[in-house]
Design goal:
Blueprint (H helix, E strand, L loop, with lengths): L1 H10 E3 L5 E3 L3 E3 L7 E3 L11 H7 L2 E4 L1 H9 L9 E3 L5 E4 L2 E7 L7 E6 L4 E4 L16 E4 L16 H15 L2 E5 L3 H11 L6 E3 L1 H12 L7 E3 L3 H8 L4 E5 L12 E6 L7 E3 L4 E5 L6 H11 L3 E5 H4 L1 H14 L3 E4 L3
Parallel strand pairs: 3-4, 4-5, 5-6, 10-11, 11-19, 12-15, 12-16, 13-14, 13-15, 16-18, 19-20
Antiparallel strand pairs: 1-2, 2-3, 7-8, 8-9, 9-10, 17-18
Helix pairs in contact: 3-6
């Protein structure tokens, strides 16, 4: 059993710098001396060390949308190193075949599967259910378990989108709405509001605006999206009927009178939303699987070995690995160990 474990860990592992190491050629979402650096999506903890990877990796592999979002965020990848791969498509590097699978997370997100003659390994990256492809028959599955504790469940997760839309609509009756969240999540909410038929103008600071323009270029119906402090945006703001999208880091600095403030968080488990003061709501809006969804994925996938990402999940990853061993009977460990 020990020799089998050592063999599997040569196929998939996690470095102390957060790189998911699959097969022989791929370092995913972290820096490592591998031929190809893969970026599954644009969240900060998945683009760690990307500047270094751009310098020393031969190729940077991501979906076309993720590549263009990275450019909007200020990353400059030389054209000779840029590999673009659509969801469901495959690319062969050496003797290994890599395929991107759908992940329900943020625009551009993917899961990664690497296959060779003697092995097949995969990495979920961040995801939520439903809407995520479940990789099966793997020798090793590496899973993100941000919410790996048993009590970290959101039973309202499937209803929270409608609840958020209702809060935005109620806020617009009284005046403008300011929504605070991380990059990726903000764009996800933009898409959601448009899909629910809200034609209210969107206003955003430059980076959020630039990322929205990328999505529009990929066919997402987000307009009108206006850049803050432009003449057009200032004219719209006089009418007090707009939604302003801002990064979470600005939530304590930006003050607005007679407006509704919505703070998006994945760390609220007691209730789907709560009112902080007369104008401010905290909404439990997460693009990560909660505990029960993690268990559902692992049950369906049933790999020979499960590796839980402890670099990003911390002690929750260790708890989830122990739960999988005890309750599901699947060999599991949390890495890196330190």
């Amino acid at each position: 059993m020990l020799e089998q474990l050592k063999k599997l860990l040569r196929l998939a592992n996690i470095s102390d710098k957060g790189a998911i190491l699959l097969g022989e050629n791929f370092a995913i979402d972290g820096p490592a001396q591998r031929l190809v650096r893969v970026v599954t999506h644009i969240h900060a903890d998945h683009i760690i060390g990307l500047e270094n990877s751009i310098r020393y990796s031969a190729f940077i592999l991501a979906t076309p949308l993720t590549h263009d979002l990275l450019k909007a965020m200020g990353y400059r990848i030389p054209p000779s190193k840029e590999l673009r791969l659509e969801v469901g498509s495959k690319i062969k590097i050496g003797n290994e075949m890599l395929v991107f699978h759908k992940a329900n997370h943020i625009p551009g997100s993917v899961q990664v599967e690497v296959e060779a003659d003697e092995y097949c390994v995969g990495y979920t990256s961040d995801f939520k259910l439903p809407g995520t492809y479940i990789m099966r028959d793997l020798d090793v599955l590496v899973i993100d378990a941000t919410y790996g504790y048993e009590e970290w469940n959101r039973p309202w997760q499937e209803e929270i989108e409608e609840l958020l839309v209702d809060i935005v609509i109620d806020g617009l009756v009284r005046g403008p709405v300011h929504i605070f969240g991380y990059h990726g999540k903000l764009q996800e909410v933009m898409i959601l509001l448009r899909e629910r038929g809200l034609d209210v103008p969107f206003i955003a600071p430059k980076r959020v605006y630039d990322m929205a323009r990328v999505l529009i270029g990929y066919g997402y119906n987000l307009d009108p999206v206006l850049l803050e402090n432009t003449r057009e945006a200032n004219e719209v703001m006089k009418d007090n009927w707009y939604v302003f999208f801002e990064h979470t880091s600005r939530s304590t600095r930006v003050k607005c009178h007679n407006c509704t403030r919505i703070l998006l968080t994945g760390w609220e488990f007691k209730e789907p939303f709560r009112k902080v003061d007369r104008n401010t709501w905290i909404v439990s809006f997460s693009d990560h699987a909660d505990f029960r969804q993690l268990v559902e994925y692992v049950k369906e996938a049933h790999p020979k070995l499960l590796i839980v990402d402890r670099f990003r999940g911390g002690n929750a990853a260790s708890y989830f690995a122990e739960y999988v061993r005890r309750k599901l009977g699947i060999p599991a460990l949390a890495l890196p160990t330190t």
